[in-house]
Design a protein that fits this description.
CATH topology of the largest domain: Glutamine Phosphoribosylpyrophosphate, subunit 1, domain 1
CATH superfamily of the largest domain: Aminohydrolase, N-terminal nucleophile (Ntn) domain
Strand content: 15-25%
CATH architecture of the largest domain: 4-Layer Sandwich
Radius of gyration: 21 Å
Distance between the termini: 43 Å
Shape: elongated
CATH class of the largest domain: Alpha Beta
Oligomer: single chain
Length: 274
């Protein structure tokens, strides 16, 4: 009753997993990832040990295919399991046991493995794979797009309940002191993928990075607009002080560097609040 995609962007140094299920808090079970090592999804009567054990084997240098073979060999319940793995080089492997409930299956391609069980049809897994192959940009956004396409293609035959997104990068997370770039979970929701996309937008607003070349110069006209909008929100006085106070309250301080230029995401946030 779950579908997932594990994937990587080797150029960005990102590995990740996205999943949706008619199951409470799917993110607490399915997704596992480690930067420079790989990513694992474990589902369908999931064996949670596949996550840490799979990453350990990948860390030791085994390929995705060999790692999956070792996990299955040691598991008497292998025929009830489903799993997908991507390794450090983007090689992929997927497994669907003979006792997984129909429709169940998976497919792999360059830098991804897609799988699902208790699905309406194979079209759900095909949509995961084909969307990943057809898209570009940040891995997190591509993975959400994959989930949305899979749901549109039929999804879990029992319906929707929870979703999750995990993306890792070495020292790419909070304050550059964490490997977790994105870790978001929708535990129980009528439309969990839509909700996942919504909270990812909030996450990106706070923690995303806009290339400096895309920042806007704060000329006289824009400075006047900023003062007026900040005053509407109760932030008056020197522009730099008012701007710093407001962005701090909104947790946007990591997108601020003085007042000579402004990140367009911050500007849009200010405009949307006034």
């Amino acid at each position: 009753m779950t579908y997932s995609i594990v994937a990587c962007d080797l150029d960005a140094g990102h590995w990740g997993v996205a999943t949706q299920s008619k199951f409470l808090a799917v993110g607490s079970v399915v997704p596992w990832a480690e930067p420079g090592v790989g990513a694992v999804a474990t589902q369908s009567y999931a064996n949670p040990a596949y996550g840490p054990d799979g990453l350990r084997l990948l860390r030791e240098g085994l390929t995705a295919e060999d790692t999956l073979a070792r996990l299955l060999e040691a598991d008497d319940g292998r025929e009830t399991r489903q799993a997908g793995i991507v390794d450090a080089q983007g090689r992929a492997a997927t497994h669907t046991g003979t006792e997984c409930h129909d429709w169940a299956g998976g497919r792999t391609g360059s830098r991804y493995a897609a799988q699902g069980n208790i699905l309406v049809s194979a079209a759900t897994v095909d949509a995961l794979a084909e969307t990943f192959e057809a898209t570009s940009g940040p891995l997190a956004e591509r993975l959400i797009d994959c989930l949305a396409a899979a749901q549109e293609a039929g999804g879990d035959s029992r319906g929707q309940q929870s979703s999750a997104l995990l993306v890792v990068e070495r020292d790419g997370g909070y304050a550059r002191m964490s490997d977790v770039v994105v870790e978001l979970r929708v535990e129980d929701h009528e439309r969990p993928i839509e909700e996942l996309r919504r909270i990812y937008g909030l996450h990106d607003e706070i923690f995303g990075k806009t290339p400096r070349r895309m920042w806007l110069d704060v000329d006289e006209a824009l400075a006047t607009e900023l003062r007026e909008r900040l005053a509407t929100l109760g932030y008056e006085g020197e522009l730099a002080d008012a701007f710093t106070s407001w962005t701090g309250k909104e947790n946007l301080e990591d997108r601020v560097d003085g007042i000579e230029q402004i990140d367009p995401v911050v500007l849009e946030a200010l405009r949307s609040r006034t």
